[in-house]
């Protein structure tokens, strides 16, 4: 892919999709947000998101990556990434709901292939249609990078299981009907002297013994997180996802793909920041009416920003192309997550510097993007964890 902030795609099918997505993001969705006064820190409700799910479904974007039998267009990872980049570059508050990231098909990952007919009919197909929403509950206060240290347990109980534990950082939790919860099977683990076994469950969030609480507000200021508190919550056996003991494989089996697919959205956000910065440097003047971009110090900054952006984008799409070919892209996924997170942060840091006081001011988009991008160096695995994994694969 040659360098362009707003790429044109040689693939006619993809070019049409991108054009239609841009039209929706910059037109109808932008108007919708302005009319309602939404900002990135608005406390959104389910009622705010549902119209976007429905409209995006009508336009063919919601769940577009899914196989045709589920109403999607069976997109390659590379094509999906191009759409996710446009989502990140749009600056829209509700963009996360267009493809189904916020509680929709993208949030569910590839669990469709593990689901029974009952689970498809009751949970996952309604989710694909935008009628239901889910969150993924894996992380705990003391079980982040080391998820196997989780304390949430599942105890067999007659025709089902009893779940007890406290999950945190369940993104989309405020809007979800059910959670995909991973729990350790009781009687397994270091304290019991048995190898820990984990299972995954579909948990209705209105079940007795299940409570959804406001989660911590991240530094981005977005209100999209929940804690899922389970106190002897009964889950029917029919809601066991996959086989008992396969929960961690199901949970982590989606990680390589998801790790890579987070990168295009972040690349899009970096593209947005670079675009806003170039616009500022072209029109903001210094003494004598000289544009900022005429100053060599500024030229060097934007040159470095553009170069890092191109490198991050190129390696990400190369890794996704390998994934499309069925190749093992684990190392590339770790490398992309590391490089995209770190380079995007450097791009945003320079963007703030060039914007000066405005870049430090709440309500300015660059200031929001800086906080948002800073989080990606921690979320979905810290940069240090990525380095550990890369070194381990090279050993």
UniProtKB/TrEMBL annotation:
EC class name: oxidoreductase
Domain Acyl-CoA dehydrogenase/oxidase N-terminal stretches: 17-131
Domain (Acyl-CoA oxidase/dehydrogenase middle) ranges: 135-232
Residue ranges annotated for the Acyl-CoA dehydrogenase/oxidase C-terminal domain, each copy included: 245-391
Cofactor: FAD
DNA repair found in the keyword field: no
Transmembrane stretches, start-end: none
Keywords: FAD, Flavoprotein, Oxidoreductase
One example GO MF annotation: oxidoreductase activity
EC number annotated for this UniProt entry: 1.-.-.-
Family matches, as InterPro entries: Acyl-CoA_dehydrogenase, Acyl-CoA_Oxase/DH_mid-dom, Acyl-CoA_Oxase/DH_mid-dom_sf, AcylCo_DH-like_C, AcylCo_DH/oxidase_C, AcylCoA_DH/ox_N, AcylCoA_DH/ox_N_sf, AcylCoA_DH/oxidase_NM_dom_sf
Domain of life: Bacteria
SUPFAM superfamilies recorded: Acyl-CoA dehydrogenase C-terminal domain-like, Acyl-CoA dehydrogenase NM domain-like
Family per record: Belongs to the acyl-CoA dehydrogenase family.
Protein name: Acyl-CoA dehydrogenase family protein
């Amino acid at each position: 892919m040659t360098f362009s902030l707003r790429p044109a795609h040689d693939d006619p099918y993809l070019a049409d999709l991108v054009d239609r997505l841009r039209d929706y993001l910059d037109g109808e969705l932008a108007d919708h947000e302005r009319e309602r006064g939404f900002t990135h820190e608005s406390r959104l409700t389910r009622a705010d998101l549902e119209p976007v799910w429905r409209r995006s479904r009508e336009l063919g974007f919601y769940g577009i990556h899914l196989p045709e039998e589920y109403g999607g267009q069976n997109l390659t990872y590379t094509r999906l990434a191009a759409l996710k980049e446009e989502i990140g570059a749009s600056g829209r508050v509700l963009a996360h709901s267009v493809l189904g990231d916020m509680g929709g098909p993208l949030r569910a990952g590839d669990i469709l292939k593990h689901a029974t007919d009952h689970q498809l009919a009751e949970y996952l197909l309604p989710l694909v249609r935008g009628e239901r929403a889910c969150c993924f509950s894996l992380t705990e206060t003391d079980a982040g990078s080391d998820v196997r240290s989780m304390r949430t347990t599942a105890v067999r109980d007659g025709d089902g299981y009893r779940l007890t534990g406290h999950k945190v950082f369940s993104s989309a939790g405020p809007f979800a009907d059910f959670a995909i919860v991973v729990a350790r099977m009781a009687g397994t683990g270091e304290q019991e002297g048995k190898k820990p076994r984990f299972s995954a469950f579909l948990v209705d969030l209105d079940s007795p013994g299940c409570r959804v609480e406001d989660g911590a507000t991240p530094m981005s200021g977005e209100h999209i997180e929940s804690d899922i508190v389970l106190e002897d919550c009964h889950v029917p056996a029919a809601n066991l996802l996959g086989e008992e003991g396969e929960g961690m494989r199901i949970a982590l089996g989606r990680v390589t793909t998801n790790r890579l697919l987070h990168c295009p959205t972040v690349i899009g956000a970096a593209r947005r920041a670079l675009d806003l910065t170039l616009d500022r440097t072209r029109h903001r003047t210094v003494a004598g009416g000289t544009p900022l971009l005429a100053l060599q110090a500024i030229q060097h900054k934007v040159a470095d920003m553009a170069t890092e952006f191109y490198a991050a984008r190129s390696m990400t799409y190369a890794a996704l192309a390998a994934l499309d070919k069925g190749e093992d892209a684990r190392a590339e996924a770790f490398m992309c997550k590391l490089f995209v997170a770190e380079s995007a942060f450097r791009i945003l840091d320079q963007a703030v510097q060039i914007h000066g006081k405005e870049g430090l001011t709440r309500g300015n988009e660059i200031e929001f993007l800086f906080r948002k991008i800073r989080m990606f160096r921690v979320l979905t695995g810290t940069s240090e964890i990525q380095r550990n994994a890369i070194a381990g694969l090279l050993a």
